[in-house]
Write a structure and sequence with these properties.
The protein is built from 13 helices and 19 strands. The relative contact order is 0.08. Among the domains are: 5-125, Methylthiotransferase, N-terminal domain (Rossmann fold, 3-Layer(aba) Sandwich), CATH 3.40.50.12160; 291-375, Transcription Regulator spoIIAA (2-Layer Sandwich); 377-438, Nucleic acid-binding proteins (OB fold (Dihydrolipoamide Acetyltransferase, E2P), Beta Barrel), CATH 2.40.50. It has helices spanning 15-30, 56-68, 82-87, 90-94, 110-118, 165-168, 177-189, 214-222, 242-250, 267-272, 279-290, 311-324, 351-373, and strands at 5-11, 33-35, 44-49, 76-81, 98-102, 123-125, 147-151, 153-154, 173-174, 194-198, 229-233, 257-259, 297-304, 328-333, 380-389, 394-399, 404-408, 421-429, 434-438. Helix content is 32%, strand content 23%. It is α/β, with parallel strands linked by helices and 440 residues long.
């Protein structure tokens, strides 16, 4: 149809960005747009950006330069997310073919912004970072029919020295527990069996209605009829309290997994990072998790090469890996980000040394995971079926501990469908996954 409104959306970044895009897609569909699978088919091309990693801005502008040749076809372009908030109207100067710039805390303004773009105007949605509003929409277009995200907090008040998030996503604000539980019930009624509660610091949740603490909210979502698994990410250690572990112990649907970013094993480096806790404080929280009646897997985030990190302090991080025994880590080299306090620090660690430390850490962690994964061999574990690896003729599943478990089905048994839950006997283990055969 000649006048049909079509859009293409490309997403980069974290789970928050992925879920933001689901809400943006739903909002556009509610405004009469149809999503298409390629830039060539689209009248409106949107790029949902992330500014966490090094050179994120350059990557965005390179992508926009690639798009410019399509301007002659009458296409319009928009930049969403963290880089949009960070760069603001400078995007128009560097990429004049862009019509829409919308920061990640301003998606609630998209319907009006789309009207302006359709009228041939440029439109900006850049919050003042003091907003108390969250992006509430009934039009979320979820990309997975079995597992979905629920945002419970937006923004961040922690201001870690290396992190750009408070400057791009605004100050911390929470949705009401009533709205969150209503969304969880709606998802369960629609056939979803797994939900993941999201926030930059999910356990710093503060109910505007003052009805529930985070642990109480977690337990309430876990008790929604129809839900079989409830996850949450990401936690900040300073807000991680013992009652969260108590809730996991008490409510069977809460998954056996906690992601608790540490960033460094050195208290001196943690202080420089403005993380608000010491190594000892962090290990106290790990002790709570390990004292649970259920075996809870623990994963973390680590930055190597923060300004001033000595070799001895890096060794402290390696020793922390041994002391905790993480089931997985997400590790990165430090890179300065715009507007952050660490940007003004002398970036004293050469890039090649950062790369060496990262390689050493990742190999050290691989050995730990190889050893820890062996404990699952011989166990029978419930997995949620996610899909099939046709090249290997294996089904792909995930455990409550958030571990991939690839498995086969014995001859004569029907192949389970995605979204179903089956029991799998584990026959082999690897650093990042398990292998087994479906039971029954």
């Amino acid at each position: 149809m000649a006048n049909e409104k079509t859009f293409y959306l490309e997403t980069f970044g974290c789970q928050m960005n992925v879920h933001d895009s689901e809400k943006v897609v739903g909002t556009l569909i509610s405004q009469g747009y149809r999503q298409v699978e390629s830039v060539e088919e689209a009248g409106l091309v949107l790029y949902n950006t992330c500014s966490i990693r090094d050179k994120a801005e350059q990557k965005v502008f390179h992508r926009l330069a690639d798009f410019r040749k399509l301007e002659r076809q009458g296409k319009k372009f928009g930049v969403l997310g963290c880089v949009a908030q960070q760069e603001g109207e400078r995007i128009f100067a560097r990429a004049p073919h862009v019509s829409l710039v919308c920061g990640s805390a301003s998606y609630r303004n998209l319907p009006q912004m789309l009207v302006e773009v359709e009228a041939g105007k440029r439109s900006t949605g850049l919050d003042d970072r003091q907003t108390t509003e969250t992006f509430e929409t009934e039009f979320t277009a979820r990309s997975n029919p079995h597992r979905g995200y629920i945002t419970i907090t937006e923004g961040c008040d922690k201001f870690c020295a290396y992190c750009v998030v408070p400057y791009t996503r605004g100050r911390e604000r929470s949705r009401t527990s009533d709205a969150i539980l209503a969304e969880a019930r709606h998802m369960a009624d629609s056939g979803y069996t797994e939900v993941q509660l999201l926030g930059q610091n999910v356990n710093s949740y503060r109910d505007p209605l003052r009805k529930k603490t985070f642990s109480e909210l977690l337990a309430s979502v876990g008790q929604v009829p129809g839900l079989k698994r409830v996850r949450f990410t990401t936690s900040h250690p300073i807000d991680f309290t013992r009652d969260i572990v108590d809730a996991i112990d008490a409510v069977p649907t809460l998954c056996d997994h906690v992601h608790l970013p540490v960033q460094s094993g050195s208290s001196r480096v943690l202080e420089a990072m403005q993380r608000e806790y010491t190594r000892e404080d962090y290990l106290e929280r790990i002790a709570w998790i390990k004292a649970a009646r259920r075996e809870i897997s623990i994963t973390t985030d680590i930055i190597v090469g923060f300004p001033g990190e000595t070799e001895a302090e890096f060794e402290e991080t390696l020793s922390l890996l041994d002391e905790v025994g993480y089931d997985g880590t997400f590790s990165f080299k430090y890179s300065p980000r715009p507007n952050t306090p660490a940007q003004t620090m002398a970036d004293s660690i050469p890039e090649e040394e950062k790369a060496r430390r990262l390689a050493v850490l990742q190999e050290h962690q691989k050995q730990i995971q190889t050893r820890l994964s062996k404990r699952h061999t011989g166990q029978t574990i419930e997995v949620m079926v996610e899909g099939k690896n046709r090249a290997r003729e294996q089904l792909i599943g995930r455990t409550s501990q958030n571990k991939p478990l690839n498995f086969t089905v014995t001859a004569g048994n029907p192949e389970p469908l995605p979204g179903s839950y089956v029991r799998v006997h584990v026959s082999a283990s690897f650093p990042n996954s398990l292998l087994g055969e479906m039971v029954g």
